[in-house]
Design a protein that fits this description.
alpha+beta, Beta-lactamase, five-stranded antiparallel β-sheet, 21 helices, 12% strand, serine-type D-Ala-D-Ala carboxypeptidase activity, Beta-lactam/transpept-like
Length: 683
């Protein structure tokens, strides 16, 4: 009996045949494509190793200030001369199936894609050792499909022309381990002062973890993160069967002894500045470390070599060489934001920690200009008067109290003007102002000016009790000097790649963050620290350096038990200095408290020598009138002291001073005596 297939079965069979035919065609296509790629790889031969090109850093005047020193820290050693531990650690953490795949780990790629899709971000990579080695042969690390295709072709060429041993040897000799050290031999010498062949399990696990993030996982940058990464590597080695769990734990607990006699070339000119430039290249321009170190870049910076040399020399000459006190210094052009000089410590070789951009310290009274700007915005004027006397402020229905103290517990025990308060750095007046206008106003103003540190709306904030960064403070003062226009600190003006193409160029920009008239009035208030006409119950805070000044400046000093600051500016240059001890020791010596002011004034005077002595140009909405500085009222012919003071138009005083009519006032400004003159009239 003949069985006739049903029409349904015939239809299914047709689809099966079509599927089989298409599969066969695709298989043939992929086979031919794969054979073509292999033939192409064989025809092209082994890819040559690209010769790294030195990246050069230039100052604003075109002079060279530094370069990457990869030539001094690159070695090539045979795989047999590399510790088995580093080989095992690298394979375990980077590419566990290195000896099984042919350049690409398909399962790992699929797993990474799934993980990244679930996280909606790149949380897992799948590059094999061969792919990473191929990537190292490129100076161009652009994240484009063209570059990825070239990288894939290089990967195939490597697998087709090199043995696994040769690929691994090339990888270990070219991978970047941070701090200018390329290859495992250079890294072994740099971190541990020994050849790669002598690396222990603990040392090898530490080094194998670094290439994933050479800056992030460097034990010299953050040892806690580096140790966590080392533990990951050791766990991977145990999972791969290279070592036991016990050996992994013992290696993790073994103390590491690092070499401090590094073979990498030391930067000589502005090393702290160069570190900030490299940070900007990584985090602002998005360049990876290999491109920065060996990409043949030409980086044109904002550094003024002459100003940098002056700042370094002043710090060296002024601070006692036997003192452990530290320093941070930043100088900027307030109009462009270009950083002209930067110092993050007294000795880069001993401490590369950059106190100018990384440390946060209490700014003390250097925070007060922000407060008084906010007060002017709320209706205060330079003539606003309040009493300066020991005062205890009560909060929270009497549950909390706060008693600010003036320097050396001196008080006027009388009314003083706002202009006097900032010039004399009266703390009681500052806290009263802070509470009167609302504590949130100072926080808002500081944030507008670019203070990035966490700030709390508390009474003591008026006295600068919460820590901030030097770079932020100098940037904020730049905005005041620039009539309220803020520019971000600029370190890099242009970057040119190894082909001569400009890949980045800074375009000047600024943002009006403050009212220009209120900013100008604040600047004029800040000139008071150098003006003895404002002397009252004590002298102005700039008295000790006033005789060294030859041009108009505005500024403010600040002192806490552990920190000393001086920040100030002329119209064309702003500079800030912090001095103190790293561990927060108190500064008890009189000379230590003068370091910041002396460094600042000597730097400013020498840097601006021969340049125009510019005045602070009034904005359109302000008016200047002569007042009696003792009471803030309009001065008359009878007033023995008159001072030109600026106000937002319409807020200037209208009442005339009557204190000196008919000689009713027994002591005028010039007759006032300091406390020591009252006790020692012969002084």
């Amino acid at each position: 009996m003949e069985i006739i297939p049903s029409s349904r079965f015939r239809g299914t069979w047709k689809y099966i045949r079509a599927f089989a035919f298409i599969s066969l065609i695709l298989a043939i296509f992929f086979t031919v494509a794969l054979a073509g790629l292999i033939a192409f790889a064989k025809l092209k031969g082994a890819p040559p190793l690209a010769v790294p090109q030195t990246t050069i850093f230039y100052a604003d005047d075109g002079s060279k200030i530094g370069e990457s020193d990869n030539g001094q820290t690159r070695y090539w050693v045979d795989l047999d001369d590399i510790s088995p531990y580093i080989i095992q650690a690298t394979i375990a953490v980077e590419d566990r199936k290195f000896y099984e795949h042919h350049g690409f780990d398909i399962k790992r790629i699929i797993g990474a894609v799934v993980a990244n899709i679930k996280a909606m971000a790149k949380v897992q990579g799948a590059s094999t050792i061969t792919q990473q080695y191929a990537r190292n042969l490129f100076l161009n690390h652009d994240k484009t499909w063209t570059r990825k295709l070239q990288e894939a072709l290089y990967t195939i060429r490597l697998e087709a022309n090199y043995s696994k041993k040769q690929i691994l040897e090339g990888y270990l000799n070219t991978i970047y381990y941070g701090h200018g050290a390329y290859g495992i031999e250079a890294a072994a010498h740099y971190y541990f002062g020994k050849p790669a062949k002598q690396l222990t399990l603990s040392e090898a696990a530490m080094l194998a973890g670094i290439p994933k993030g050479p800056y992030y996982y460097s034990p010299f940058i953050n040892e806690k993160r580096a140790k966590a990464r080392q533990k990951t590597v050791l766990s991977s080695m145990a999972e791969a069967g290279y070592i036991s769990e016990k050996e992994a734990e013992q290696a993790y607990q073994t103390p590491l002894v690092y070499s401090r006699h590094h073979e990498a070339g030391k930067k000589k000119i502005a090393p702290y500045f160069q570190d900030v430039v490299k940070y900007a290249l990584r985090n602002q321009l998005g360049l990876d470390e290999r491109v920065i170190e060996t990409g043949g870049l030409r980086v044109y910076t904002s550094l003024d070599p002459e100003m940098q040399e002056i700042a370094e020399r002043k710090i060296h000459d002024i601070i006692d060489p036997h003192s452990d006190i530290q320093v941070a210094f930043v100088a900027m052009d307030p109009r462009s934001g270009e950083v002209k000089a930067l110092i993050g410590g007294r000795d880069y070789d001993k401490s590369p920690f950059n106190r100018a951009v990384q440390a946060e310290r209490q700014p003390g009274s250097t925070f007060k200009p922000f407060l008084y700007y906010a007060a002017i915005q709320q209706g205060f004027t330079p003539s606003t008067q309040m009493r300066s006397e020991l005062t205890t402020f009560t909060f929270d229905n009497g549950k909390e109290t706060y008693t600010p103290h003036n320097y050396n517990n001196y008080y006027a025990n009388d009314e003083i003007t706002l202009a006097q308060a900032i010039a004399l750095s009266d703390n009681v007046f500052a806290v009263k102002t802070h509470l009167f206008i609302g504590e949130d106003k100072l926080v808002e103003t500081a944030k507008k000016l670019g203070i990035t540190s966490k700030l709390k709306a508390v009474p003591s904030l008026a006295l600068g009790t919460l820590p901030v960064k030097v770079i932020d403070m100098v940037g904020a003062y730049s905005a005041l000097a620039n009539n309220g226009k803020k520019t971000e600190p600029v370190f890099i003006k242009k970057v040119v790649n190894h082909k001569g193409e400009t890949i980045y160029e800074y375009k000047p920009s600024s943002k009006q963050v403050l009212d220009p008239d209120a900013a100008y009035v604040t600047v004029q208030l800040m000139t008071g620290m150098f003006d003895p006409k404002l002397n009252d119950y004590t002298t102005v805070t700039g008295q000790s350096i006033r005789k060294q000044i030859t041009r108009p400046y505005a500024g403010k000093s600040g002192t806490t038990k552990t920190d000393s600051w001086m920040i100030g500016f002329a119209p064309q240059l702003v500079a800030g200095v912090w001095t103190g001890y790293d561990r927060g020791e108190t500064m008890d010596k009189v000379a230590e408290k003068q370091y910041a002011k002396q460094i600042w004034v000597q730097f400013m005077e020498e840097s601006l020598q021969g340049k125009p002595k510019k005045q602070f140009k009034p904005t359109k909405g302000v008016v200047g009138v002569y007042v009696d500085p003792d009471n803030g009222k309009l001065a008359t012919k009878s007033c023995p002291v008159k001072r030109l003071t600026y106000y937002i138009a319409g807020t200037e005083p209208t009442d005339y001073c009557t204190d000196h009519l008919h000689h009713k006032k027994s002591k005028n400004k010039e007759e006032k005596k300091n406390w020591f003159e009252k006790w020692f009239p012969w002084f």
